[in-house]
Amino acid sequence: MSKIKSLFLLLVIPLFLSSGYLHEYYVSVTKIEFVKEEKSVQIITQIFIDDFETLIRERFDDRVTLGDENESLLVEEYMQRYLSDKLRVTLNGMPVEFNFIGKEYKDDIAYCYLEIENISEVKSIEVKNRVLFDVFTDQQNIIRLKINNKNKSFLLIPDNDNCLLNFN
Known about the structure:
Layout: H1 2-18, E1 27-35, E2 40-48, H2 49-59, H3 75-86, E3 87-91, E4 94-96, E5 99-106, E6 109-117, E7 124-129, E8 140-147, E9 150-156, E10 162-166
Parallel strand pairs: 1-8
Antiparallel strand pairs: 1-2, 2-6, 3-4, 3-7, 5-6, 7-10, 8-9
């Protein structure tokens, strides 16, 4: 009987240690699309809720719980401030600011919706994405661009945090 208990413990304990707040990969996905008809660049940034919550607690307010029914009204402001600092877009050689439209939670991911308005054409786009690099050393950020009927993806890491796409 003790062999069965020992075997059970050997199999179950690792499951408890591997579950919880930590996960194996630290990754965000940012989709950027130029919508010519609307003269806008639309951005959706997807970040794991627990990772974003860790960041907001460290940087802004240690009492915040994302997705909670009593979530602080300041959460969107924290998200906007952080993303404005860590996600930079340059269009046609000029740095541009985005508007934070809002956020929503689906499953375990926070979706942040951003928009750059009054863009009639995109000749080049440069994206610098340092989201969560200051919290997780092994963070990776995927950039998926859909510009001028071209699709391109980039994987950004702390040592290589920007990408450039020219259409000339």
